[in-house]
Structure prediction request, 321 residues.
Amino acid sequence: MRTVRASFTRSSPAFGPYNCAIENYRAPIAHRLSVSAPLIFQPAPDAVYGFPNARRLASVDSPYQHIEVWDTPQLGRLFTLDGRPMTSTGDEFIYHECMVHPAALAHPAPRAALILGGGDGGAARQMIRHPGISRIVVAELDAEVVRLTREHLPEVHGGAFDDPRVELVIGDAARYVESTDETFDLVVFDLTPPDSPAASLYTTAFYTQLRRVMSRDAALSLHLGSPYFHASRIAGLLNDLRETFAVVQTMAAFVPLYGSMWTMATASDTLTPATLSADDVAARLAARGIEGLRWYDAQAHVALFTAPHALRDKLSQVLRD
Prediction:
């Protein structure tokens, strides 16, 4: 694993102070527990769901957030940030495969990828399946996310951080984008939601800055949220993306950990993943030797960009408002 070791400190209203010198990083004290407790999530003021008989395995207060690791009968091990579900071993492949492969296959020959967030390694694990990609940068704010998921959720990262193509950068993702001279063919937002410390990255100002490090045919993939829990938020995100990029296309898949149908999007000036046919996707997967995916395939690709009628109605109502 290659890791940036620049020592610089900066205060950011979105992220607060950080130190990028990971070799000097001291992990906070972890309260290691094996405690049975109800694991309840409230994605909206009028909605609640959860996982009975969960066991909390670890609880850590990092410099940035409260991290917990849980074991559940339904989805295996998962971790939460400030009480919000992030990744589970039982269904991470759904959104990580959707966030990576549609855009990557739409690009004729991606060489470099940037993952903002992604400290669990799931997006990087999918990205390295594309043999033409020779460089993947994972810009993750919190070293504790990397440490805890490497320890407790090895199925998610699958050793991706040990691949020589992957560089892990610990620090402010916005600062990385500001300071890098590299360009990338694929960018993935594997971040906490827009109403979190990552809020400043979900803005037209940051998208404009991000375009500086995106190649001409690059594509961005990002989470939008649940159309049933976060309709207004999705509308705002789509409007901002459409102000910045020429082509914005939405995807939808049910994600058990998030308790809902979940929408995602790709944004680009040239690439149109939604126009790929099942035959196109099958041919490109075969040409790149990509096998063993658990959710995404040629048929799923078409369905991913074909929202159910009720979901189309919901999104159209929100976008009109």
